[in-house]
Amino acid sequence: MRYSFRGAIAQNSDAFPGGGFCLAANKGYFAFLDSLVASSRQSNKDLAVFVLTYTLAPGAAYPTQLTQAVSALRYILKQTRRKPSQVVIGGDSAGGNMVMGVLSHLAHVHPAIPELKITEPLLGAIGIAPWTLMGQDHSKREIYHGGDLVTPAVDLLWSTAFLAGAAQDYFTSVSDAPKSWFEKFPVRQVLICGGGSEIMLPVIEDLAEKLQVTIALTRSLTREREGHVAPVYNIYVGDRTETQQGKKIKAWLRDVL
Question: What Pfam families does the entry give (predicted)?
């Protein structure tokens, strides 16, 4: 487990990269994170991005990655002496799963992970195409599968490696949780993004709806013809055209910082 900072040391974003818990962060992540820092700086908002390098499956299984994500937040709050009201946690796909897992731990305490007590809510949380329901066929609705990476077969492969025989629970699959689970999430504002071509779009929309019921300052955005984690993946494959999701995330950060 490694930590790294990118950007000025001021308001802080704790980033959990996705990749199905099986793939390491690619260059698209760091290019996109750098663009968030630059965008914030242009608006005279200071942003530092703290990136967690967590242990990948199948080398380690649940709850290792969630334990490391909680440890990263603990490090930021304890070692860098930031207040929770200065911290935004964010992630895409599996990283979005960890965002919801960390909020779940703060509210309900995972039995295998040391408790992390905070004195005030986190400033915010961002989920880009959060993968919060595992091993499911999300393709009941007619969706253009050419715009997505996470087919049911890929979902099953990655989730099996991540769980390694462990039962799913609300920390791994928060989409299964009742709305009451979200009521104690200690966070002021939430942004959930998804692409119109996502196979998991119904799950993402359902999660956003549950959050909107319990956390008043929850915003969601779906953009047609954008695929899974488009702000990151598009850069990775060489397309530097800014996505609508990327624009929304930058605007949201400028508002909350």
Answer: Abhydrolase_3
Collapsing DSSP states into helix, strand and coil, what is residue 157? helix
What's the per-residue H, E or C state across 93-126?
A: CHHHHHHHHHHHHHHHCCCCCCCCCCCCCEEEEE
What string of H, E and C letters represents the secondary structure of 52-88? EECCCCCCCCCCHHHHHHHHHHHHHHHHCCCCHHHEE
- Residue partners of 178: CB distance under 8 A and separation at least 6: none
pLDDT tens per residue, range 70-111 = 999 999 999 988 999 999 999 999 999 999 999 999 999 999
Predicted TM-score (pTM) of this structure: 0.94
Per the CB < 8 A criterion, the answer to whether 131 and 20 are in contact is yes
Q: How is residue 256 annotated by DSSP?
A: H
**Would you kindly state where each structural domain of the chain is located, as residue ranges?**
2-256
Q: Round to whole Å and give the CA distance between 100 and 176.
A: 12
Tell me the per-residue pLDDT of 168-200, one tens digit each, with 9 for 90 and over. Answer: 999 999 999 999 999 999 999 999 999 988 888
What does CATH list as the number for 2-256? 3.40.50.1820
Token pair for 134: 């595992």
List b or e across 193-215, with b for residues whose CB sees 16 or more CB atoms inside 10 angstroms: bbbbbbbbbbbbeebbebbbeeb
